[in-house]
Each structure stands twice: as C-alpha cells, then as structure tokens.
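Suppose you are handed a protein chain with no further information: no name, no annotation, nothing but its sequence. What can you learn? This example shows the usual starting point.
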Amino acid sequence: MLDVIDFRQQWISWGKPIQVPFKHSLYFTDLAHVICLYRTGQFQVELVTVKPNTNVPKHRHPNVESSAVYVTGDFGYGDDKEGLLYYDKLQKERGGTHALFMKAKKDGYLGEPHYATVFDKGAAWLSFERWENKEPTTVLLDWEGEPLDELHRKLLNGKA
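A reasonable first move is to predict its three-dimensional structure. Written in structure tokens, the prediction is:
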C-alpha cells in the first residue's frame, strides 16, 4: 500500500503538478490560508500559509497521515530548541531559493500531536497527506485541539 512518503516522492518525480480540485480546495481562517494543489484518491498536497507572529496551538489530525515540507518563511516546530538553532544556521540562499526548500521536518506521521511558532516573516509549507476512512477536505477540518482563531473555530463547528 502506498504511504504518504511514497506519494510525496511520486508527486515530486512527476514534476510537482498542480491540478486544483473542484471540491474542498480553498480554506481561510484569520491566521492561515490553505489551498489544495493536487488530489488523487485519498492523497493530496496542500499549500499552507500562516501569518507572521502566530502560534499554531498543539493539535493533531486523527484521520490524516501527513508529511510537512518547508517552502519558505520563518518558523519552528514546537519546543525543538536544537531544531530552531539548526534552522537559524540555514537561513541562507542555496541555488536561488532557501536552503530548506522542499525539506521535510519529519517523515510521515498519523495523528501525532504537533504545533509551531511562526516568526516575523510568516511561513509556508506543503502538507502531503493520505486520508484514512474519509473523503479528503483540508487538515484545517480534520483537527483535534485548540483552534487557530475564531474563524477556524466556526469552520470546525460548521458555521463558517
């Protein structure tokens, strides 16, 4: 069975195609924007952007195996002080883009709690996803934990 890491590698080998699906493709909260760039069956790639100086609260996506890949910006994952120091050393250009471009923080995880701190520049990453037992929508809706903001709370309650 194909896992999220295999899917990520395939999508990259296909030339990173963008084919935004008709359904469940664009979501907004006050602090984050998410667009689905590609979907096939239970797999999808979402581009997540988060506004500067934002704390993404601890949460999990119980029905999604995912792998986050750095695109651009200034952020760290949780309390990972070593990781943040390593990240600071990589704040440089490599080949015309950021040194961390398309690097994964961690290979696939399913339902594990995680959180992030977004600094002055804001942040963007790709979320590679394999959805279990439900139709793919967005990780903003498959969310257990404190919401990002009031608009996100309304999305989770089906009132936005």
